[in-house]
Amino acid sequence: LRAAVAVLFGFVVMTVSGPATAQNFAAAVQVDLVIEEPLSQTMPVIGRFAATQAGVVASLMRGPVADIKVAVGDRVKKGEILANLVPERIRWSRELAAAVLKSKQASLRTAKAQLALTEQELARLQNLRKSAAFSQARFEDKSSEVTKFRSEVGEREADVSSAAAELRLADIDLYNSQIRAPYDAVVSEKHTVAGAYLNVGDPVVSLINEAALEIEASVP
Question: pTM value?
Answer without folding.
Answer: 0.65
